[in-house]
Write a structure and sequence with these properties.
The structure is a single chain. Helix content is about 55%, strand content about 0%. The chain contains 5 helices and no strands. The longest helix is centred in the first third of the chain and has 19 residues, at about 10-30.
């Protein structure tokens, strides 16, 4: 799945990452240094330091997943359904000489 298709992390992927951040919070509460947290959880030290700052500011809830990032789709469900149908018909059905969808062709 591509990012434009709503890709990136799945719900399960975000949950796994959140679980790692919660483990980090437990380690911070136990007084473990961020560098050691990064080593144990196999993440970057930059992430560990960011998580520690967020944890100190707002506790474990500050480390919760914020959901998918990026802009939200501005098309309605009906418009998305129509777009899928038209894309499935293919470029030739819309007068293009070949079967390649390009951004310029889709946006016309």
């Amino acid at each position: 799945m591509r990012y434009a298709d709503g890709g990136g992390l799945t719900v399960q992927g975000r949950a796994r990452r959140e679980a790692v951040r919660v483990q980090a919070a437990d380690l911070f509460a136990a007084g473990v240094d961020p560098v050691e947290v990064a080593r144990r959880l196999r993440v970057s030290t930059k992430s560990a330091y960011q998580w520690k700052r967020r944890w100190q500011a707002g506790g474990v809830t500050a480390l919760a997943s914020r959901g998918p990032s990026g802009a939200s789709c501005r098309l309605s469900d009906r418009q998305l359904d129509r777009l899928r149908v038209e894309l499935d018909r293919g470029p030739a059905a819309h007068g293009w000489p070949d079967q390649r969808w390009t951004l310029a062709r889709v946006t016309l």
